[in-house]
Design brief:
39% of the residues lie in helices and 21% in strands. The chain is of the alpha/beta class. Helix 4 links the parallel strand 4 and strand 5. The longest helix is centred in the first third of the chain and has 15 residues.
Length: 173
């Protein structure tokens, strides 16, 4: 099976998730085609058996260019099984999962694409890369004083085992 992984990344965690998915697919004996949605020379779906879409949420939505590409290729994508990985910090916390689900619902409404499978994937905080203003937004808006090590340069919430299990279930269907 040939699987296209089309992803967008802002701070790098969704890129890391996409590369993990590609490796996981290869370990299962399938072919993975990794494509950054920000720079596809041409998105060709001929010969693609299944698609994994992965994008982060920032300011309550997935990247506009990613959504525009999905909307433009909606008919071609709908001809194949599609797994959508929506990456957000809200997905890491029980009290944030409903909001994370809303981000995905809003993306589906904007693009018109209804994936066959979806997963809310917890993202990461990279405090070592933020300026003072960004740190305050992360601390008081995004994380809402949730428990995490503020002194660590990076805190990853992604559950790699759960992600691998979801990919396996998607490929088996």
């Amino acid at each position: 099976m040939k699987v296209l992984i089309l992803y967008a990344t802002v701070e790098g965690q969704t890129g890391k998730i996409a590369r993990f998915a590609a490796e996981d697919i290869r370990k299962r004996g399938h072919e993975a085609v990794l494509t950054d949605a920000e720079s596809p020379t041409e998105l060709v779906l001929d010969g693609i058996d299944a698609v994994i879409l992965a994008a982060p949420v920032h300011q309550r939505r997935h990247p506009r260019n990613f959504e525009a590409l999905i909307a433009a290729k909606r008919d071609d994508l709908s001809e194949r099984p599609v797994l959508m990985l929506s990456v957000s910090l809200n997905a890491a916390f029980a009290e944030g999962r409903d909001e994370a689900a809303d981000y995905l619902l809003e993306m589906k409404m904007r693009t018109g694409l209804e994936p066959d499978a979806e997963m809310l994937v917890p993202g990461a905080v990279r405090t070592g890369e933020y300026d003072y203003f960004a740190m305050q937004v992360v601390r008081y808006v995004v994380m809402r004083n949730r428990d995490y090590d503020r002194d660590a340069a990076e805190h990853e919430f992604t559950d790699w085992d759960a992600l691998s299990a979801k990919i396996g279930a998607f490929l088996d269907d």
